[in-house]
């Protein structure tokens, strides 16, 4: 019984963390059709922002939930102005340019922080369930991810700002003739996407030893989760994160964590072959 | 056409012979060997991306697969002839299967990129996790992160005690590169090559004319992988060790950077990009002021933004505009337009 609860929580955590690491990429890709291959490095920078702030004596939750997203959002803003802005509508070129950016940021982080592992301890103690001890921080990640999805849904679906953003993504010419500047909306969207990446990186930072190349561990998972999700932003993200998270955890429990990851990646390849437009192109059509 | 083809081959061989002879006077053969291998690897992606329009984010997978195949087979057989052949065949068959799965599913650019990237990662993760003694193929232990050291290196066929190493390995790699280059040239002149370029330009049109686009793309993809596998096997010989790092994303990124910098849609561009940037990396490795990765990233961003056609096509068009006589429109320009269209496919 206890084991069932523990496995249930682990699966929930796997799904939540997949959704969390993909949300920044999903906003940028889903809304702007720009694939940001530097997403993993944005997360890595979010992690470093948190660790530096905590070492300076700032409360860890302030550092994670406020400082990291703002810092990474601002970096994203600079990147959008200098690079991405020139490449809208050229999908392959944005992929290449952001891949270049990802290498650039890895190099930069190596110069600043050195090629060593840094980390902070998890701020939440473990929880005992029967005979088992689980990481309390995992529950925190589940809560944050759920709140984030709800917030995203409310902002995009229920506010005027979200309406304008969605409208611009569908028909920039129409939005601009109604008096909204697509340029500024793209900029703001990219800022939000980067900030979400930074937030995800910051929240995961206490769980991993951070090195400048940490981003590489996230990018592939985030990438396949978003692509497999398909056109609907939130429904796609939740559905593909659920599929992959469950597969990952089942194989992890049955065999080993490495097999779990490999199973996840193989599942992604199979899924993309069967549903090349993503899950939500066939199911949950027209949702957000 | 036959006359110019013959002349081109003679010119290529002569220029290559002079370069192969002259370059060791300036740079050590140990470095030149790896540059020739990189050039071959660059050419393999240059072929499928520049002429077939297939953007593969995982060319390193075939490179690594070739290297590992060579190492494992060499340990098991104790000589190098059969392993070299296997190192070409295994990546080729693997790519044919992978390609068939992707192209018969009619996946778009982005999905192709994701799948090739993911496959590279799967291989990386799997090979990295094989440290335990239970992971053996024949008598070869896979060795996880540490890779496989100490396999027999290249020997004269039929004489397992006569090793090819040092200067001889350099000449072998250089000649292999020349042969691959000539092979690619011949391939692009053949009707198959011309149809591949046609598919790159307009897939729908080619399939309406009646060509089986899916089969042709699969074959092209497999040929590219075979070349990458050969490069991998030579690399294994040069380094005398194979590690999972061969499958890494940074290796894949590097190959793409070579092609972008050198110039897509040319045969010489990726070759030059690979050798040039490889040498730059070698020079940068001797100092610690500038971080290598950072510089590579910067180069990629700047090229995508300001010189997306690459060095060689740009140089050719400058030359033509200034002194050369105007000829038919450059292939690179057409590819560029094609890429610029930036299909999203959903």
UniProtKB/TrEMBL annotation, chain A:
<dbReference type="GO" id="GO:0005886">
    <property type="term" value="C:plasma membrane"/>
</dbReference>
<protein>
    <submittedName>
        <fullName>Amino acid/amide ABC transporter membrane protein 1, HAAT family</fullName>
    </submittedName>
</protein>
<feature type="transmembrane region" description="Helical">
    <location>
        <begin position="250"/>
        <end position="275"/>
    </location>
</feature>
<feature type="transmembrane region" description="Helical">
    <location>
        <begin position="12"/>
        <end position="36"/>
    </location>
</feature>
<dbReference type="InterPro" id="IPR001851">
    <property type="entry name" value="ABC_transp_permease"/>
</dbReference>
<keyword id="KW-0813">Transport</keyword>
<keyword id="KW-1003">Cell membrane</keyword>
<comment type="similarity">
    <text>Belongs to the binding-protein-dependent transport system permease family. LivHM subfamily.</text>
</comment>
<feature type="transmembrane region" description="Helical">
    <location>
        <begin position="185"/>
        <end position="211"/>
    </location>
</feature>
<keyword id="KW-0472">Membrane</keyword>
<dbReference type="Pfam" id="PF02653">
    <property type="entry name" value="BPD_transp_2"/>
</dbReference>
<dbReference type="GO" id="GO:0022857">
    <property type="term" value="F:transmembrane transporter activity"/>
</dbReference>
<dbReference type="GO" id="GO:0006865">
    <property type="term" value="P:amino acid transport"/>
</dbReference>
<keyword id="KW-0029">Amino-acid transport</keyword>
<feature type="transmembrane region" description="Helical">
    <location>
        <begin position="91"/>
        <end position="114"/>
    </location>
</feature>
<feature type="transmembrane region" description="Helical">
    <location>
        <begin position="56"/>
        <end position="79"/>
    </location>
</feature>
<keyword id="KW-1133">Transmembrane helix</keyword>
<keyword id="KW-0812">Transmembrane</keyword>
<feature type="transmembrane region" description="Helical">
    <location>
        <begin position="134"/>
        <end position="156"/>
    </location>
</feature>
<feature type="transmembrane region" description="Helical">
    <location>
        <begin position="217"/>
        <end position="238"/>
    </location>
</feature>
<dbReference type="InterPro" id="IPR052157">
    <property type="entry name" value="BCAA_transport_permease"/>
</dbReference>
TrEMBL record, chain B:
<keyword id="KW-1133">Transmembrane helix</keyword>
<feature type="transmembrane region" description="Helical">
    <location>
        <begin position="219"/>
        <end position="243"/>
    </location>
</feature>
<keyword id="KW-1003">Cell membrane</keyword>
<dbReference type="GO" id="GO:0005886">
    <property type="term" value="C:plasma membrane"/>
</dbReference>
<dbReference type="InterPro" id="IPR043428">
    <property type="entry name" value="LivM-like"/>
</dbReference>
<feature type="transmembrane region" description="Helical">
    <location>
        <begin position="110"/>
        <end position="127"/>
    </location>
</feature>
<feature type="transmembrane region" description="Helical">
    <location>
        <begin position="295"/>
        <end position="319"/>
    </location>
</feature>
<feature type="transmembrane region" description="Helical">
    <location>
        <begin position="255"/>
        <end position="275"/>
    </location>
</feature>
<protein>
    <submittedName>
        <fullName>Amino acid/amide ABC transporter membrane protein 2, HAAT family</fullName>
    </submittedName>
</protein>
<feature type="transmembrane region" description="Helical">
    <location>
        <begin position="168"/>
        <end position="188"/>
    </location>
</feature>
<feature type="transmembrane region" description="Helical">
    <location>
        <begin position="12"/>
        <end position="41"/>
    </location>
</feature>
<dbReference type="GO" id="GO:0015658">
    <property type="term" value="F:branched-chain amino acid transmembrane transporter activity"/>
</dbReference>
<dbReference type="InterPro" id="IPR001851">
    <property type="entry name" value="ABC_transp_permease"/>
</dbReference>
<dbReference type="Pfam" id="PF02653">
    <property type="entry name" value="BPD_transp_2"/>
</dbReference>
<feature type="transmembrane region" description="Helical">
    <location>
        <begin position="82"/>
        <end position="104"/>
    </location>
</feature>
<keyword id="KW-0812">Transmembrane</keyword>
<feature type="transmembrane region" description="Helical">
    <location>
        <begin position="47"/>
        <end position="70"/>
    </location>
</feature>
<keyword id="KW-0472">Membrane</keyword>
